[in-house]
Amino acid sequence: MTDSSSSAVDKLDTDNDSNKSDSSPSPPSYAVFEDEYGNLVNPALNVIWPMRPRRGRYSLKEYRKQKQRFQKHSEQRRQNKKSRKCMKQSKRQLDVSHGHPPQQTKDNSSSIYVGVQSASSLRFILQPTEFRLFYMRPESMNSFNQMPVKMPLMLAYMSSSGKIYNFGFKRHEYGSESFWQLDLSGIEDREQPIFRSMSALIQYYKSFVIDRGDGKTEIFPMD
Fold first, then answer.
1. Where is this region: Disordered (predicted)?
2. Beta 113-117 vs 217-218: how paired, if at all?
């Protein structure tokens, strides 16, 4: 009697466990891969998980709609991120173009300087109404050893008629600061303006124009 009752109880527990297992779906324990619909499939065993209902929230149709919405949302986020990045880059470029005018002045000044030259060589460099800065070396040097230790900084100017003039500079010291002044003695008695930097001096004379009245212009007061 006791053995029979015990067997019946064991069978009942086994049936209950089986029913619980059948009513609680779980992922498959064998190898599977995800197909284009998001299902886990095993072609060899001809199984698919989960078995989606034809209608409702978990149906294949609803799954596809959710997937499309997710893809659309992801694409929108990607486009928004790209737009914000482009706007930041444009703002940085705008800040650079408006925030560093001294650098542009420096570049323009550098194109005026032509290094160590003889006075006669400037004829092949200058065009009418142009000027260049250079360190003047002797006209004739048989070797590099004859290069002087100190050479004067000069400004060479070609007039509208093609004549070349060479001007020196005056350097003034006020405290710890240096100031520059172009020396036009010989052609101009008036003192020239004094500048805090060579770049400022160059920009001033590049924008300076004298109308001769005969249809020609000069930067400096030539005859």
1. 1-31, 64-111
2. unpaired
